[in-house]
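Data card: per-record layout.
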Amino acid sequence: MKLVTDLSEISLIAKTPHGKIPYYGKIRTVSADDIAMYCNKEKFDNLCRLGCPNYAKKWSCPPYSPIYNNFADGFQNLCIVLLGLNLDELEYIKQDYLKIKAANSMLKSRVDKVLRSCMDVDEKYISTGSCRLCRVCRKKTGESCAHLTMRTFSFEALGINVSEMVKEVFELDLLWYKRGVLPKYTCVVAGLLTNECFPDQRLVSKLIKLPV
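The structure for this 212-residue chain is written out next.
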């Protein structure tokens, strides 16, 4: 895999009613074409069909989401952003499932805000989940998408095996919550398709400047 840039871990802070919570960011820019090796759209569409309540109910989800190869066409680089949080930082939350839910909500909102604010008119943003521009997706009301040029797709919706990609790019295993077993940490992953050679500094600057 062609690694364009490689930034070390960034230490970040989020302020909550219970105090300041440390979390971290990792950013790598890779060749956009190289990520196609992790794409298996048929497999991940089928997994969504079998296990996700959003399947066929959102315009940003399978079977309506494009395949990564087509979505990334014309872009040289993919800047991958991972935000992570060690769950022992949330000791004030007693239920394990709620720790995961609170951590992912905080991380998703932060990476979404940064990447949307960084995205130029000739770039594309790959989100951490289904598009959240509308409170209720118009697919559920039988209408056309309200934001055709702004809606986002997740790596999974594009057919990417995120676990394998993260393992290769960051040398990190994604951990999942299992009933009764709280993982050591949780992560969210998003991306920016661009033709800029060094987009990392833009993203780092935005992450550091996020309101605590």
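Known properties of this structure: The two ends are 35 Å apart (CA to CA). The chain has a mean pLDDT of 91.

See the next section for split statistics.
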